[in-house]
Every structure is written in structure tokens, then in C-alpha cells.
């Protein structure tokens, strides 16, 4: 199912924007999503609110999904929703939660000056996408939230939408981890002090918003050192695990039990909180769905 694609830059010529076996994890499940339709899942459970707007949710937070597959899936759902609108049919929202294999992504106008490596010998695959924002890193331990939102059902205001996505993360950090996070004027994302925990980048087509946010939970932050994350040079990148570890040390504790949970549970806890707070902020009834046609393949080491 792999399709080799390339894009051209004036300085470096073509460079690959699809995953290669050289960079893929050798022990993770690879989830091909190219055949998935947003209408083909099985409904599981729901989170209900007083509002009458619904949102189907594909919760793949335990899996590492290749970036290109998730990207193509989003674009397919966007096309479906635009078709529904053109036919004057109901167009509900969709939410996808997952993790990615290690990858760098760039926005449509991102500058290669924020890459601290030779693009011809990149440590991970590099994708230039149609979202806004500069370069960032995605990898295991980072939760990705892709809301595919019909802004006609909410508010047709991109600044409002970005602030609401930030609000979701701020509430998660506060309600679940007692971490006080904030916005920084003039910058998009969620911060704790000078550490950026969540990056946000979106694309809107005919008032259908897609792409979304990335929240560092247990992420290895080393790959961020090879870029200037989001094009911001004077600030750091942080993670929930890192902040909790700092809190333990400040309180004289040396293990995670002081926070009443195991670090291995952080992804599950954070994912549940993200979905719950997303439902609250956007006043949506969440309809959890499975995707039974996915093939779960174990990646074998290259010979």
C-alpha cells in the first residue's frame, strides 16, 4: 500500500515524504488506514452531553500509526464531509486519537532553516503538509488528536477554534495532573512556564478543519533537539512525564508512586482525559467507534 511521493524544495531538490523501512520501529504494530472510512466503524460507547451535536471517535491511542496513513485518512474524511455539505446532508464531527512512528512534519510555509540536519540524510522521515505552523516532531509517547470539525456547527472563526483546542489541553493538565498550564500571547500552543507541552497546527477546507494537536506525554524529547520546534528558538519542549518527575523531586520523592499512578499508565489516563475534555469544551456527544477492517501487523526487523 506504500505510495512513494516527493516534494521539491529550491535548495535540496526532491526529498521523500513517505515512511521508509529504515526509520520504522522494529517492534510496534503498524496500522494501515488507507481503506478506512469514517462511516465503517462499529459504535461502542458514548459520552453524552446536553447538546445535540455528535462526534464519532476512533480511539487508537495505544497504537503507532504511520503518518502518511493517518494523513490520507483525514483527507478522505474531509472529502466525505464536504460531499455531505454539498448534498445538504447532516455533517457530524470526527475525532481520531493515536500515536505516530518517529517523524518530522512541516507546515505548508515551513522554513528548512529550522532543520538542524541535512534534509538528504534526515534522521527520520520528513513530511511537508498543508497545515499551518513550522516544523515539529511526532513519535511514541506523544498523543495526537485529529479533530475533523465542521466549523459551521460551532463557530466559523479560526482564532476561536485554536483557542478552544488549547483549552482542551489546559483542562486536561489541570483536572488530571494538577499542572497549571497557560497560553502565551502571540504563540499557538500550551505552555507550562517556558516549556511547550502541546503543539497545534490546522488546515481548513470549506470550513472543515483537520490536522490538530500533539501533546507530549511520555515522549522522548531528544529528537526535538534536531529541529527548532515550531520555529521558536528561545523556549523549550516539555512533557507530562517530565513535569511530574520534577514535581516528585521537588517534594522529596524519587518515584512515580508519589503521584498515585504508574508512568506506564500515563498514555491511557491522558487519552481518556483528552476525549472527555474535548467533549466538554465543544459540547459534543462522543460516539466511540472501532475500526474492524484494520489489519494489525507486527513489524519485523529488516534482514
Description:
With 303 residues, the chain is an alpha+beta fold. The chain has one domain (48-298): BirA Bifunctional Protein, domain 2. The protein has four helices and 17 strands. Strands 4, 5, 6, 10, 11, 12, 13, 14, 15 and 16 form a ten-stranded mixed beta sheet that branches. Strands 8-7-9 form a three-stranded mixed beta sheet, with no helix packed on it. The chain has a two-stranded antiparallel ribbon with strand order 1-2. Belongs to the LipB family. One of its GO terms (biological process) is protein lipoylation.
Q: Biggest β-sheet, characterized?
A: 10 strands, mixed
Quick one: how many beta strands?
Answer: 17
- Strand fraction equals 25-35%
Measured distance between first and last alpha carbons: 21 Å
- In N-to-C order, the SSE pattern is EEEEEHEEEEEHEEEEEHHEE
CATH topology (fold) name: BirA Bifunctional Protein, domain 2
Number of helices: 4
- Ranges where pLDDT stays below 50 over 5 or more residues in a row are 1-44, 293-303
Helix percent reads 10-25%
Compute the number of structural domains.
1
Assembly level: single chain
Shape: globular
**CATH homology superfamily name:** Bira Bifunctional Protein, Domain 2
Overall radius of gyration: 19 Å
Mean pLDDT: 82
Q: What is the CATH architecture descriptor?
A: 2-Layer Sandwich
CATH class: Alpha Beta
Given helix and strand content, the structural type is alpha+beta
Provide keyphrases for this structure.
303 residues, alpha+beta, BirA Bifunctional Protein, domain 2, three-stranded mixed β-sheet, disordered N terminus, disordered C terminus
Amino acid at each position: 500500500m506504500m505510495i512513494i511521493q516527493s516534494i521539491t524544495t529550491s535548495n535540496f531538490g526532491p526529498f521523500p515524504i513517505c515512511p521508509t523501512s529504515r526509520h520504522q520501529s522494529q517492534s510496534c504494530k503498524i496500522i494501515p488506514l488507507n481503506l478506512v472510512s469514517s462511516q465503517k466503524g462499529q459504535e461502542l460507547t458514548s459520552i453524552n452531553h446536553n447538546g445535540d451535536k455528535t462526534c464519532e471517535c476512533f480511539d487508537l491511542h495505544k497504537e503507532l500509526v504511520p503518518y502518511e496513513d493517518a494523513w490520507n485518512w483525514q483527507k478522505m474524511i474531509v472529502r466525505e464531509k464536504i460531499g455531505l455539505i454539498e448534498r445538504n446532508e447532516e455533517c457530524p464531527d470526527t475525532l481520531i486519537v493515536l500515536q505516530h512512528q518517529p517523524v518530522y512534519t512541516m507546515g505548508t510555509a515551513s522554513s528548512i532553516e529550522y532543520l538542524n540536519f541535512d534534509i538528504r540524510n534526515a534522521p527520520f522521515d520528513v513530511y511537508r503538509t498543508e497545515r499551518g505552523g513550522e516544523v515539529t516532531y511526532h513519535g511514541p509517547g506523544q498523543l495526537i488528536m485529529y479533530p475533523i470539525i465542521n466549523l459551521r456547527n460551532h463557530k466559523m472563526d479560526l482564532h476561536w477554534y485554536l483557542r478552544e483546542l488549547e483549552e482542551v489541553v489546559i483542562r486536561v493538565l489541570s483536572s488530571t495532573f494538577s499542572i497549571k498550564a497557560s497560553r502565551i500571547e502571540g504563540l499557538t500552543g500550551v505552555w507550562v512556564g517556558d516549556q511547550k507541552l502541546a503543539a497545534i497546527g490546522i488546515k481548513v477546507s470549506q470550513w472543515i478543519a483537520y490536522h490538530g494537536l500533539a501533546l507530549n506525554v511520555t515522549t522522548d524529547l531528544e529528537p526535538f533537539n534536531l529541529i527548532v520546534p515550531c520555529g521558536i528558538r528561545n523556549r523549550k519542549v516539555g512533557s507530562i512525564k517530565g513535569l511530574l518527575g520534577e514535581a516528585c523531586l521537588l517534594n522529596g520523592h524519587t518515584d512515580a508512586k508519589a503521584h498515585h499512578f504508574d508512568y506506564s499508565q500515563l498514555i491511557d489516563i491522558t487519552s481518556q482525559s483528552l476525549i472527555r475534555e474535548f467533549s466538554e469544551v465543544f459540547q459534543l456527544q462522543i460516539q466511540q467507534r472501532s475500526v474492524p477492517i484494520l489489519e494489525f501487523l507486527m513489524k519485523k526487523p529488516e534482514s
